Amino acid sequence: MGERRALGRSRSAAAFTQMAAGQKVGGQCGDYIQKALSNPTQPWSPELPVYIAPLPSEWTQRKRKRQSLEDEDPSTSCERPAKRSREDAYIKGPMLGQGGFGSVFAGTRSSDGLPVAIKYVTKDEEHENMEVEGQGLLPLEVALMTRVNSAPACPNVLKLLEWFEHPSRYVMILERPDPCQDLHRFCEENGCLDESQAKKVLAQLINALKHCESRGVFHRDVKPQNLLICTDTNDIKLLDFGCGHLLKDSEYKEFAGTLSYAPPEWFRSHSYRAGPATVWSLGVTLYNLLCGSLPFRSARRIRRLRFPSHLSAGKRWQTFSCSQTEIIVRARSS
Questions:
Q1: Selected catalytic residue, list 31, 71, 221, 235
Q2: Considering the domain 180-333 in this protein, what is its CATH number?
Q3: Arithmetic mean of pLDDT, 182-191
């Protein structure tokens, strides 16, 4: 069950791959465009001296009373426009991507033109809720983002601006840096990161993950596709908590995320701990960014790492130590 969830949720990063600058957006979210109709004109008597308007007949009084009742009840009035929802505050643009989780669209906030991403998530059989103090039960992904966005927020974690719930899905309004790309697409178009870029990315990613840990959140799906890079500043933002869970000291027995970034113990014993698993995925991510490929042909068969010749000895050791820290920690604790 865990792996099925992983296959669906781990695709969500692809939804942000087209977040480059200059995207035009159009069409309002939900297309709630309605024409307001004015109330019927009331009879009016001319303002002339000594003129008295005739009293309305009994039929006219009944008609006005019935019309007044209809105006008070929108469900029975065909002339009164439907009440607009808060979702109408955002204009939905082109789709950025979709997967097993749902779909993501570019968007803008009508009031000030702020770029946003509108993420629609379908509630499936494995949908989880979590109690949040003062807010009741929230979808797990929303609850986790609420935790990591609580003040003081971290600049390296994508912000959740607001969210809306429907019977079969929930909608998340997320910040959308402009211009930006996910790191996987960025490297595909520009080549592997050089060592100075990789150093800056790694420092920001560690900052984001330490912040998540301080909020009691385990991301569980660290990879280049889940990292946005602001292409004008090289600032990094961690996104997509759809595979995340509450942080705990004990072992996790269910996997969620991307198998290529899963720690070796998952394949051996179908269990893992949050800290070592995060460090392992961090090492695989760093190798991918520097070398343009995954470190092992199969995540199930961990063999000796091979590095391209252009990589310096220091960077090779840094990548190797990140990838092997999980094994070292386990060895010391045994």
A1: 221
A2: 1.10.510.10
A3: 94
